[in-house]
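Lab manual, section 2.4: Encoding a predicted structure.

Procedure: take the sequence of the chain (247 residues), apply the prediction step described in section 2.3, and record the output as structure tokens. A sample record is shown.
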Amino acid sequence: MAQPDTRQEFAEYILRKIGAPVIQINVSEDQVEDRIDEAVSFWRDYHYNGSQLVYLKHQLTEDDVENGYIEMPKNILGISRVFDLSSSISTGSGIFNVNYQFVLTNIQDITSYNLQHYYMTMQNLEFMQEILVGRPLIRYNRHVNRLHVDTDKANLIAGEYIVVEAYDVIDPSTYSDVWSDRWLQNYAAVLVREQWGLNLTKFSNMQLVGGVSFNGEQILQEAREERQRMEEDAIGNLQPLTYNFIG
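Recorded output:
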């Protein structure tokens, strides 16, 4: 059968994955939906396919400057950095910019032989910028959804643009291919199986129609062990670079 393309098909797929309709899976539709939401949330936070690196530009307003923060779009998972706001102030602008003057003075050397001197000089200028000026400090919480830029207000000029490097979550309603992600399918199936085992523990030693009985404790224990293994693997091996998730 084809891979699921919608949330409904995904729910049906994971139920079949754990035994339906051959076995009656004793979970409600609401419980399945809740476990899917939980699986997608974890997948976004810890799996490299759950988010994407984006660059956002924002034109500063007077309110932004006065407040000291910028309202961010929804679904931003984390912010890694804001591109330097003060480089034009510390190194000049236009023809008075240090980089421009260096290239102008050494253009013949740059185009005639190797770029080693140019590269080392640019590295030194960047190092000086980092030591003497530094990068703007930022604070961001995805639930508050505000990017605070802790810098001198003189660096925040209304009408100028600020460029943010951030991680945006992948929305399944926009990208239907999410529902065919194998790790997400396996993880959602484990969560539903755990819910199933938890439900069955309420009816220990009860036989079903035809004399069939389920060991709810065993189903629950196996599902929890598999869930722990998958989560540890995702956190340890499948995340994007964790140091980028700051703000």
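Check your result against the sample. Confidence is low (pLDDT under 50) at residues 243-247.
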